[in-house]
Write a structure and sequence with these properties.
Length: 191
């Protein structure tokens, strides 16, 4: 048994570490014994054979290209109406969306389910009970009331998280900021 290969021979299990394998520091990585087994050989990935014939696209990618989700300019130019991965999956990742509209006379807000377009909760200062009780239908107090009503009605419908996507060049400040902050204060999470 003395002629065994040193890499295949099982070392004896001492009660303490050998002096050459003793940890020199107190970190967890220093407590791992160094392996003398050589690493496996690396796998080489080769590009697939280029397609033959006219009109065939030549790709400079490896066989495994599942991690690429962003489309190249050429692919976007060939199929301009195809939606990106985020556009296709966003409505399922964030299903409830808040819509807020401010007119000169009223404030309207609703929570919609994005994939089915079902309205979950609605609040507006044009409602009869709010029209008769609020002194002004467009001021900051009316925005706080609308935010509170939307939060209560959404929680009654078992919706505890929603998203708000601002339009282009729209800032979340002023009356819109008051509505969203009031909804957050009443327990709704914005994702």
């Amino acid at each position: 048994m003395a002629s065994l290969h040193p890499a295949t021979a099982a070392p004896p299990l001492p009660h303490s570490l050998a002096p050459s394998l003793r940890a020199s520091s107190l970190s967890w990585s220093a407590s791992i014994a160094v392996s003398r087994i050589p690493p496996p050989p690396r796998l080489a990935l080769h590009s697939p054979a280029p397609p033959h014939g006219p009109g065939s696209r030549q790709q400079n990618s490896l066989v495994v290209c599942a991690a690429w989700t962003r489309r190249s300019r050429g692919e976007a130019a060939e199929r301009p109406n195809r939606k990106s991965w985020k556009q296709r999956t966003d409505m399922y990742m964030r299903p409830f969306q808040l819509n807020v509209f401010f007119s000169k006379r009223f404030v309207h807000a609703k929570v919609m389910h994005r994939s089915t377009s079902k309205v979950i909760a609605v609040a507006t200062t044009n409602a009869k009970d709010l029209r008769l009780t609020l002194p002004s239908l467009v001021d900051e107090n009316a925005c706080r009331t609308i935010g509170r009503l939307i939060a209560e009605r959404a929680m009654d419908a078992d919706v505890f998280a929603m998203a708000y996507e601002p339009k282009k060049n729209e800032r979340i400040e002023g009356k819109l900021g008051i509505v969203i902050d009031t909804i957050k204060e009443h327990g709704i999470i914005f994702v």
